[in-house]
Design a protein that fits this description.
6-stranded antiparallel β-sheet, alpha+beta, C8orf32 fold, 15 strands, 6 helices
Length: 270
């Protein structure tokens, strides 16, 4: 499937911003399930490309001209292949054991340990089937509700409150996996779920668990499915903070910034 994506982020400031520096994770990378046909980032200032510790395509954007608005647009086309959600390991990947490391967003507590423990026998018997059961169990316990959380909501918050968005589902799945000794990583990207009539206000997120002799197996908990040719991964990490599309600092611009995000994902005929 050939998928076209446009991701537009607009920052508006009540006062003049004198300087901004931002890290961008807005560029998909090639792997067994996707191949980037063309991709471009349009933004003011100086854009420098680099690769982070997880192998993600990354950019630094520096704007040192005074402004009250910054618009960043990433767009391109990606060919996708349905691999059943399985990605084999790549030679330049960090050791899988790194993805057992706890983070503030996936920190364990007794409630998570108890919840995950209920799936330990199934995962121990058949890893993939057990992980599927964990995905379904989380989705049953944590209802999808837009605006139910924020960027720094934790896995523990999602389990306690019983509501969340795709980011929360992914964090809870990752935390449960790590509590059972299964390496798991966060994946930020996009999902094609049919022709849009209005733009999405964010990208999509899911998780991937390490299965011996198989590789990384993707679990889109929010949608109760494994990864498919409708999923386009952009960046992986320990949690959302490692893969946030845009993070940065500014000097000037009194007051709170206003941010608008518009994401379009559709089938390309070219």
């Amino acid at each position: 499937m050939r998928i076209a994506i446009e991701h537009k982020t607009t920052y508006r400031y009540p006062g003049e911003v004198l300087h901004t520096a931002q890290y961008l994770h807005l560029t998909p990378r090639n792997n067994a399930s996707q191949w980037v046909i063309d991709w471009r980032i349009q933004a003011p200032g100086q854009l420098t490309s680099w690769e982070d510790a997880y192998g993600n395509a990354s950019h630094t954007l520096v704007e040192d001209r005074p402004t009250t608005e910054i618009v960043i647009i990433a767009r391109g086309r990606v060919d996708t292949t349905d691999t059943g959600g399985i990605l084999p390991p790549e030679d330049d990947e960090p050791p899988v054991e790194i993805f057992l490391r706890p983070t503030p967003l996936t920190r364990l507590n007794n409630a998570i340990r108890d919840f995950a423990g209920g799936f330990a026998p199934a995962i121990g018997g058949d890893s993939v089937a057990g992980l599927h059961a964990l995905m379904m169990g989380i989705r049953e316990h944590v209802a999808f509700e837009t605006e139910a959380s924020h960027a720094q909501s934790t896995a523990a918050d999602a389990l306690e409150q019983g509501v969340g968005v795709c980011q929360d589902h992914a964090h809870l799945f990752i935390a449960c996996c790590r509590s059972l000794g299964v390496p798991a990583r966060y994946v930020g990207g996009y999902l094609f779920d049919g022709e849009q009539t209005i733009p999405y206000t964010a990208g999509h997120a899911w998780a991937a668990a390490w299965v011996e002799n198989l590789g990384w197996v993707s679990f889109d908990v929010a949608n109760r499915v494994c990864g498919s040719d409708r999923h386009i991964g952009v960046a992986v990490g320990l949690d959302y903070n490692d893969v946030a599309p845009i993070r940065g600092v500014r000097a000037g611009g009194q007051g709170d910034e206003q941010m608008e995000v518009a994401v379009w994902v559709g089938v390309s005929n070219q």
